[in-house]
Specification:
The chain is mostly helical and 573 residues long. Helices cover 58% and strands 2% of the residues.
C-alpha cells in the first residue's frame, strides 16, 4: 500500500487535473491495523480507524499508544486526540499551545527563526508568547510525533482532522486582536492566504464563522468582491464555505445590481464558487440570478463562456451539484424563456435542454466545499422520481411549444432533440404522445417527425410490441403529407441520420438501388423536379431555398431538371 501525503510547499489544494487526494476507507485502515498490531482488539481497531479520518499514518501513531491488555473503547474524540498528541509523553501545555498556533495556518515556513518581516515562526510564536526558536523546537517535537509534515522549508500540522481541531480551540483561546495583528496586519501575503484557507475548514467553529462574516460584511476585509485582487479573491473563495449566505450576499452586492457589463464581467472568477453555493436549495435562485447575469454580460453563444457552461450544468437531472427541486429550476427556465431579452431566452433554452436530458450525464466540476459534507446534488432515488422530473419539464415544454411566443419554435426543436432519450430511456410515453398531438394540432412539426423516425430506426428492436406500435402511431401522426412538408423534412433538414425514407416519397422506383445518404439525395432530387412543376409549392418554399441548409445541391439538380424554363427559375432564385 502506498500513502500519498499532502503537498504543502506552496499551499496547494489536495488535487490537480490529474488526481484527487482522498482519505482511505475506515475498513482499509482497520485491516491495516489488524495486520500491524495483532494484539489490538477488533473494537479498538475500529475505534482508531474511525478517529483517524482515513489517514493511515495517524491511525498507526494512535494504535501504537495502546498497550497490551489495554483498551481505548469508550474514549470520546477529545480523549483520543489527547492520547494521540501526547503519545505516552507527559502532558506539555506549551507544546499544545504551539501546535494550536501553527494549526491556525494551513502551512508555514518552518526554518526561518529570524525577526524579519517575512519570518512566519516569529508571528506564530507571538500568538502564544513564544520566540521563533522555541517554536522551532516545538515543531521539531511534533514532527517526531508524526503530527507535522515537512516539505523542504515548509511545515504543516496534518492531517486536517487534527489541525482543524487544534485551530478551532486556538480561536477560542487566542484573542482575535492578537490574531489580527500577527496573521493579517503587515503579515506576508502567503501567511494571510494560508490563514484564510484554514478558516475555510472551520464551519463548525462559532469563532471562525464570526471572523468570516466580519470579513464579508460591508466595509470588511473582503466586503467588496468587485475590487479584490488575486489574493483577495483566493481568500474570498477559501472562507466562503464557512458562511455561505454572507459570501452570496457580498457577491450579490458587487455584481447583481451593476448596470455595465464590464463591471458584471468582473464576477467571472467567482463563477465556480457560485456553483458551489447553489448546492443549497435555499440559495439556488439567488445564485442562478448572479450566474445568469454574469453569463449575459458576455456572448451566451460562445462555447468558451464558462459562465454559460456552469449555468447549464445546474439544470441536469444528475450530477448538477445542487439540491434545488425541479419546481425551482423550472420557475427559472420559464422566466427566462418568456423574457423579452434574446440572451435570456437563449439561456432558458439551454437550461430546458439540460432538464430534458435523459441519456448522458457527466460533469467536469468538483463537488467539495471546504469541510462541508457534499454529494453530487439531487439524484433520483427511484424511477418514479425521475419520471416526475421529466413530466413537469414536458408540461412546461408543451405549454410553450404550443404557444405563439417567440420561443415556441426553439422549444419544439428542443423537445425533438431530446425525444429519443425521453422515449427510450425515460419511457415518457404518455407525456410525449400528448406533446406530439398538441404541436401537430397547430402545425407540421418537422423535427418531431424526424426524431420519431430516428427512434424507430435505432431503438425499436428492443421495444415491446405495444411500445413499437405506439411509436409507429406517432410517426403516422407526424409524417409529412404534402409536397411542401416533404421538402422541409427531407431537403431542408440536417437531422436525417438514421431516418429510412423508403415510404416517405411516392416515386420509389429507384429506392431499392439506393442506400443511406445516397437514397436521401435521390429523394431530394426527385422532390426538386416535382417542386419545379408546382408553382404554389415553389412560391411557398422560395425563401427557404435560398436561406436554408440541407440537401440543396441534389434538390437544385432536380429543380434544373424539372424546369420548363431554367432562366426563369434562376431569376426568381
Amino acid at each position: 500500500m502506498i500513502t500519498v501525503e499532502y503537498d504543502i510547499r506552496e499551499d496547494q489544494p489536495e488535487g490537480t487535473e490529474v488526481f484527487d487526494l482522498d482519505p482511505s476507507s475506515s475498513e482499509l485502515i482497520e485491516e491495516l491495523l489488524k495486520r500491524r498490531f495483532p494484539e489490538l482488539s477488533v473494537v479498538d481497531a475500529r475505534t482508531v480507524a474511525e478517529f483517524s479520518g482515513g489517514n493511515a499514518r495517524i491511525a498507526i501513531a494512535l494504535a501504537s499508544t495502546v498497550g497490551k491488555n489495554e483498551t481505548i473503547a469508550g474514549l470520546n474524540d477529545e480523549e483520543l486526540f489527547q492520547r494521540l498528541f501526547q503519545q505516552r509523553n507527559i502532558p506539555d501545555e506549551s507544546l499544545l499551545a504551539a501546535a494550536q498556533a501553527c494549526s491556525l495556518v494551513y502551512s508555514f515556513q518552518g526554518e526561518d527563526v529570524s525577526d524579519g518581516d517575512e519570518a512566519e515562526l516569529l508571528r506564530l510564536g507571538a500568538l502564544v508568547g513564544r520566540t521563533a526558536q522555541q517554536m522551532y523546537r516545538s515543531v521539531a517535537e511534533m514532527r517526531r510525533r508524526d503530527l507535522v509534515q515537512q516539505r523542504s522549508v515548509w511545515r504543516a500540522v496534518l492531517p486536517p482532522a487534527i489541525a482543524n481541531r487544534l485551530a478551532a480551540t486556538a480561536l477560542q483561546d487566542i484573542a482575535y486582536p492578537a490574531i489580527e495583528a500577527q496573521l493579517m496586519k503587515g503579515a506576508p501575503e502567503r501567511l494571510l492566504k494560508s490563514f484564510s484557507r484554514r478558516l475555510g475548514y472551520l464551519d463548525q467553529s462559532k469563532e471562525a464563522v464570526a471572523i468570516v462574516r466580519q470579513w464579508l460584511a460591508v466595509g470588511g476585509l473582503l466586503g467588496n468582491a468587485a475590487v479584490l485582487n488575486d489574493l483577495g479573491r483566493a481568500m474570498f473563495e477559501n472562507v466562503a464555505p464557512v458562511a455561505p449566505e454572507a459570501a452570496l450576499s457580498a457577491l450579490g452586492r458587487a455584481f447583481l445590481g451593476a448596470e455595465r457589463d464590464e463591471c458584471v464581467r468582473r464576477g467571472t472568477p467567482y463563477i465556480h464558487l457560485l456553483r458551489s453555493l447553489a448546492y443549497d436549495a435555499a440559495l439556488f435562485e439567488c445564485c442562478i440570478a448572479l450566474i445568469s447575469r454574469i453569463a449575459e454580460a458576455g456572448d451566451v453563444n460562445e462555447k468558451a463562456n464558462e459562465s454559460v457552461n456552469v449555468f447549464v450544468s445546474l439544470f441536469h437531472l444528475c450530477l448538477s451539484g445542487t439540491h434545488a427541486t425541479i419546481e425551482q429550476r423550472l420557475r427559472v427556465i420559464r422566466t427566462l424563456l418568456l423574457s423579452d431579452d434574446a440572451k435570456q431566452r437563449n439561456l432558458g433554452l439551454m437550461a430546458l435542454k439540460a432538464a430534458l436530458e435523459a441519456w448522458y450525464f457527466s460533469s467536469n466540476y468538483g463537488f467539495d466545499f471546504g469541510a462541508r459534507s457534499r454529494d453530487h446534488g439531487y439524484w433520483p432515488r427511484t424511477r418514479t422520481e425521475a419520471k416526475h422530473w421529466f413530466a413537469l419539464t414536458l408540461n412546461l415544454s408543451e405549454a410553450l411549444a404550443g404557444s405563439d411566443g417567440p420561443v415556441a419554435q426553439d422549444v419544439r426543436a428542443a423537445v425533438a432533440e431530446k425525444f429519443r432519450g425521453l422515449w427510450t430511456v425515460a419511457t415518457m410515453y404518455d407525456e410525449l404522445e400528448r406533446v406530439c398531438r398538441t404541436i401537430s394540432g397547430k402545425q407540421f412539426w418537422t423535427e418531431g417527425w424526424l426524431a420519431v423516425r430516428q427512434t424507430i430506426h435505432f431503438d425499436s428492436k428492443n421495444f415491446m410490441p405495444e411500445i413499437s406500435a405506439r411509436l409507429a402511431s406517432l410517426e403516422d401522426l407526424l409524417r409529412p403529407r404534402d409536397l411542401v412538408q416533404k421538402v422541409r423534412s427531407i431537403v431542408l433538414s440536417n437531422r436525417l441520420t438514421g431516418v429510412d425514407l423508403d415510404d416517405c416519397e411516392d416515386d420509389s422506383s429507384t429506392a431499392d438501388s439506393q442506400v443511406g445518404g445516397a437514397r436521401a439525395e435521390a429523394v431530394a432530387e426527385r422532390l426538386g423536379k416535382t417542386v419545379a412543376a408546382d408553382e404554389l409549392a415553389f412560391g411557398e418554399l422560395l425563401a427557404e431555398m435560398v436561406s436554408g441548409a440541407g440537401r440543396l445541391w441534389s434538390f437544385g439538380r432536380g429543380l434544373a431538371g424539372g424546369a420548363s424554363d431554367l432562366n426563369v427559375i434562376l431569376k426568381r432564385l
